[in-house]
């Protein structure tokens, strides 16, 4: 999850010992994590032995989870009956931490290839090992602020303005996230060709 419960409770001024809101806060953290992944078109959390399929005639692959730490293996499939066949001695290079470049394609356009790799950010609360990257501070802070906004306005879902005196004047927001959070997410969107 992109934010720790303790950090969120501190931001909201909720005592650590008060667990009455924990289930709601944990579900909001999970929802925010999923929403950020969807908005960025990638998986932000670090994953080990992730697999991703791609057209075998490609020489550049943009995996869904990066920064990429290591590429473990490549496989090729020509038919369902033949299954996946591991390819040996595949020459590749990780560029900019997010693109896997192959010296030559693994096969033809009618074949399917698969890469196994480790990539993504180490989430808050875990110390990154050498070669791993922590979740960028701006993403963590954006998650904390977005979750806090959802929590504090949970009784006004979608409400942007209210006219509390005589008569009802309400304007509902069409944006699922805070405007400045949206800008942070744009900076972390997945590259594509």
Give your account of this protein's structure.
The chain has 193 residues and is of the alpha+beta class. It folds into two domains: 5-44 and 135-187, no CATH class; 47-119, no CATH class. The chain has four helices and eleven strands; from the N terminus they run H-H-E-E-E-E-E-E-E-E-E-H-E-E-H. It has a four-stranded antiparallel β-sheet with strand order 1-7-3-4, with no helix packed on it. Strands 2-6-5 form a three-stranded antiparallel β-sheet, with no helix packed on it. Strand 5 and strand 6 (99-102) form a beta hairpin. The longest helix is centred in the first third of the chain and has 19 residues, at 22-40. The radius of gyration is 21 Å and the shape is elongated. The relative contact order is 0.20. The mean pLDDT is 90.
């Amino acid at each position: 999850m992109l934010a720790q419960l303790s950090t969120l409770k501190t931001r909201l001024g909720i005592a650590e010992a008060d667990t009455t809101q924990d289930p709601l806060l944990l579900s909001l953290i999970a929802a925010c994590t999923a929403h950020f992944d969807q908005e960025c078109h990638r998986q932000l959390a670090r994953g080990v032995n992730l697999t991703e399929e791609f057209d075998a005639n490609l020489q550049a692959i943009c995996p869904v989870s990066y920064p990429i730490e290591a590429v473990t293996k490549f496989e090729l499939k020509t038919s369902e009956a033949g299954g996946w066949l591991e390819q040996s001695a595949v020459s590749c290079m990780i560029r900019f931490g997010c693109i896997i470049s192959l010296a030559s394609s693994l096969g033809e356009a009618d074949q399917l290839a698969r890469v196994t790799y480790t990539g993504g950010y180490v989430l808050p609360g875990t110390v990154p090992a050498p070669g791993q990257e922590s979740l960028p501070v701006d993403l963590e802070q954006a998650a904390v602020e977005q979750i806090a906004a959802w929590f504090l306005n949970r009784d006004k879902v979608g409400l942007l303005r209210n006219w509390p005196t005589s008569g009802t004047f309400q304007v509902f927001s069409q944006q699922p996230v805070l405007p400045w959070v949206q800008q942070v997410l744009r900076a972390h969107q997945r590259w594509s060709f």
